[in-house]
Design brief:
The protein has one helix at residues 281-293, and strands spanning 2-3, 9-11, 27-29, 44-46, 61-63, 70-71, 80-82, 89-90, 97-99, 113-115, 129-131, 148-150, 165-167, 183-185, 200-202, 221-223, 239-241, 256-258, 273-275. With 294 residues, the protein is mainly β. It has a 17-stranded mixed sheet, with no helix packed on it. A two-stranded parallel sheet has the order 6-8.
Length: 294
């Protein structure tokens, strides 16, 4: 190993082998660690071949076998990658964070944060946050940007859908492939959504759906424990607010159900309005209609 007057600390066969004048304050430890650095500065590369494609980049941290070994000839700057094959491919983007086995393996394109086993491993675009085991694992479309997935298995089937926000435990929006502009918060919330757009689900198992009829509907709002529990298929424009509100609805559309267990009469009912405990206001309305006929 060596510790040069330019502040480079080198340890390992061919590590930092081609650092030139101007390349300073780098730490390269491991077989071929930082082997491509020429005038790059303030990098930390620890592990076999870590950072080997970086040449003039600065302020990167790569720790673990297979980290930052492929990609852009100059590499990115201000990136942190820790774990086996985390950020294995370094793209042209900066300010990336990848922590965990194969997190952000495809490299992204700047400003991504991927933390967890295989989190965001296929991401090639920018400005996403994937935190949790397999969160956003398959997301690789050119429009995958400004997406947030936090929790185990959250959005782990996403391919090209953009601008989704999902938080919670155990497979929130786990079936979503191309859906966009959705918000889901809670345990198993919107589990069986696939190509739906502009929906909001908040609450444990709200909008859970059915694995036999994945949701493609749009503009639904389900808030509360199991609100819209089995909404599925092309069900659209429902507003279901309250614990278990609308949990009978399957493919009905344009229903407004507000209150504890407020519900329609049948799974496919549409254009219904029910307000109050068990949707009591529907009965009051019926009584008023009857008195008006007398």
């Amino acid at each position: 190993g060596t510790d040069s007057t330019s502040g480079n600390t080198i340890f390992g066969h061919l590590a930092g082998n081609v650092i030139e004048a101007g390349g300073s304050d780098n730490l390269c430890m491991g077989h071929k660690a930082g082997v491509g650095i020429t005038t790059g500065t303030d990098n930390v590369f620890i592990g076999s071949e870590v950072g080997k494609i970086h040449t003039t980049t600065t302020h990167n941290v790569g720790i673990g076998s297979g980290v930052m070994t492929l990609g852009n000839a100059t590499g990115s700057t201000h990136c942190v990658a820790i774990g086996f094959e985390a950020m294995k491919t370094t793209a042209v983007g900066d300010y990336e964070v990848a922590i965990g086995y194969q997190a952000l393996k495809a490299g992204g394109n700047g400003k991504n944060v991927c933390i967890g086993f295989e989190a965001g491993m296929s991401v090639t675009h920018d400005s996403n946050i994937f935190i949790g085991r397999s969160a956003g694992k398959l997301a690789n479309g050119s429009n995958i940007t400004h997406t947030v997935a936090i929790g185990t298995g959250v959005l782990n089937s996403l391919l090209t859908g953009a601008h989704n926000t999902a938080f919670g435990g155990n497979d929130v929006m786990a079936s979503c492939t191309t859906g966009t502009d959705n918000v889901a918060v809670g345990y198993q919330t919107a589990r069986y959504v696939q190509t739906a757009h502009r929906n909001v689900w908040v609450g444990m198992e709200a909008g859970l759906g059915s694995d036999g009829a994945l949701l493609s509907g749009t503009d639904n709002v389900c808030v509360g424990y199991r609100a819209g529990y089995v909404v599925q298929g092309a069900s659209n424009y429902n507003t279901l607010l309250g614990s278990s509100a609308g949990n009978l609805i399957t493919t009905g559309i344009s229903n407004t159900l507000i209150g504890y267990e407020a519900d329609a009469d049948a799974a496919t009912d549409s254009y219904q309005t029910r307000i109050g405990h068990y949707g009591a206001l529907r009965y009051m309305t019926a009584q008023l209609d009857m008195s008006g006929d007398e």
